């Protein structure tokens, strides 16, 4: 949200400057921006690996990458303005940078909102987990399957398993939990075993992806 607000401020300033572009000290801008490219580019590179699985790290990565892109745009604009005196390039480049930042930030904001609303994380295949649980030995049906993110790196699951023969034993449960973790990236599973003789439906419904 901070990046979107900052982008809005940059866009507003760029639009105002576009109507009456002032002279820009191209060489000074290039020198400062070049330093920014090195520092922010290196910082973004350090976050690349962790940005795929952690929303917090991805947020920091996008912030550093956005700063590096801004600096790159400033350097490019500085070179052109030195040789052409086209000072209108400054606000135009600013608007292009804002567009790039907004496109990347909207996806981050959407994922953050899903996490806040306890929705199914985007990397979780809800249909595949549902199918897997239904095919487990002794399971005749499942219901009240809920999956949500409890942090930026961990996912929780609760489900009712209808097993007419009764509780299958701790070994079965351990293997099921291990499979959910290793195959489907669900780190915390709560499994409720039922024989199907009564209705055990949950009264609360969590937000999910349909």
Describe this structure in words.
It is found in: Membrane. GO terms for molecular function: zinc ion transmembrane transporter activity. Its main location: membrane. InterPro entries: Cation_efflux, Cation_efflux_CTD, Cation_efflux_CTD_sf, Cation_efflux_TM, Cation_efflux_TMD_sf, CDF/SLC30A. Belongs to the cation diffusion facilitator (CDF) transporter (TC 2.A.4) family. SLC30A subfamily. The protein is mostly helical and 210 residues long. The protein folds into two domains: 2-116, no CATH class; 126-194, Cation efflux protein, cytoplasmic domain (Alpha-Beta Plaits), CATH 3.30.70. Helices cover 58% and strands 11% of the residues. The chain contains six helices and three strands; from the N terminus they run αααααββαβ. The protein has helices spanning 2-19, 26-47, 55-84, 89-116, 126-134, 170-184; strands at 141-149, 155-162, 188-194. It has a three-stranded mixed beta sheet with strand order 1-2-3, with helices on one face. α6 links the parallel β2 and β3. α1 (2-19) runs antiparallel to α4 (89-116). The longest helix has 30 residues, at 55-84. It starts with a helix and ends in a 16-residue tail after the last strand.
What's the shape? elongated
List low-pLDDT spans: 204-210
User: How confident is the prediction overall: mean pLDDT?
Assistant: 82
The end-to-end distance, rounded to whole angstroms, is 26 Å
Radius of gyration: 26 Å
Total beta strands: 3
| Count of DSSP H/I helices | 6
- Strand proportion: 5-15%
Helix content: 55-70%
Structural class: mainly alpha
* Series of H and E elements: HHHHHEEHE
InterPro entries: Cation_efflux, Cation_efflux_CTD, Cation_efflux_CTD_sf, Cation_efflux_TM, Cation_efflux_TMD_sf, CDF/SLC30A
Protein name: Cation transporter
Organism: Methylomonas paludis
Main location: membrane
């Amino acid at each position: 949200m901070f990046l979107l607000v900052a982008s809005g401020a940059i866009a507003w300033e760029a639009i105002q400057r576009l109507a009456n572009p002032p002279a820009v000290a191209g060489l000074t801008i290039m020198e400062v921006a070049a330093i920014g490219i090195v520092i922010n580019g290196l910082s973004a590179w350090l976050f690349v690996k962790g940005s795929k699985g952690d929303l917090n790290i991805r947020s920091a990565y996008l912030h550093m990458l956005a700063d590096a892109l801004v600096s790159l745009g400033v350097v490019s604009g500085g070179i052109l303005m030195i040789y052409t005196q086209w000072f209108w390039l400054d606000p135009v480049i600013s608007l292009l940078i804002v567009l790039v930042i907004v496109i990347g930030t909207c996806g981050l904001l959407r994922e953050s909102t899903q996490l806040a609303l306890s929705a199914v994380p985007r990397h979780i295949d809800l249909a595949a987990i549902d199918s897997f649980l239904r095919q487990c030995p002794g399971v005749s049906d499942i219901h009240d399957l809920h999956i949500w993110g409890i942090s930026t790196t961990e996912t929780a699951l609760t489900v009712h398993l209808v097993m007419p023969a009764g509780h299958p034993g701790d070994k079965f449960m351990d293997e099921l939990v291990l499979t959910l973790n290793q195959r489907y990236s669900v780190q915390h599973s709560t499994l409720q075993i039922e024989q199907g003789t009564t209705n055990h439906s949950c009264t609360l419904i969590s937000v999910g992806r349909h």
